[in-house]
Amino acid sequence: MEPSVKTKIEELIKTKPVFLFMKGTPEMPQCGFSAGVVGVLKQLNIDFDSFNVLSDMNIREGIKEFANWPTIPQLYIKGEFVGGHDITVQMANSGELTKLIG
Amino acid sequence: MTLPEIQNKIETGLPGAKVEILDPYKDGVHIKALVTYQGFAGKSLIEQHRMVYATLKDELKAEIHALALETRSE
Lengths: 102, 74
Prior knowledge:
By secondary structure, chain A is an alpha+beta fold. Helices cover 50% and strands 17% of the residues of chain A.
């Protein structure tokens, strides 16, 4: 991964306590799993920012290496990678997600 | 890639794991793997999912579009 890509990712995840890398936008997700995570966050009234990986091929590939995680969406809380769609849904249901955000 | 092939890949990569592949929409694309594996014990969910992804490293880059995971240690 290019150092500039890594720097950009690090800056993005610091912009907001809850940050989502997704396909599409929260208003118009381009993938069912991305839509699922947006739905969970909205349902819990969690404030978040997102980045559309379809708009930037370097970030799209870089983020997989960054998190050592082969798929998108990817959720970050307080700068830490939390998981993809399944883990986010599981943590939302168990209450862990809101606890983590504090 | 067929569903039994995916199952076989995971079972080969995680010896002793019990793997069930679901195809809830019957489209062969949006699939879900239920994986029960003793080796998950003591591991975080992220680590458990990483272990399953590792068995499908190349497939996830190309052939597999949507794989949902549910992991258990027993």
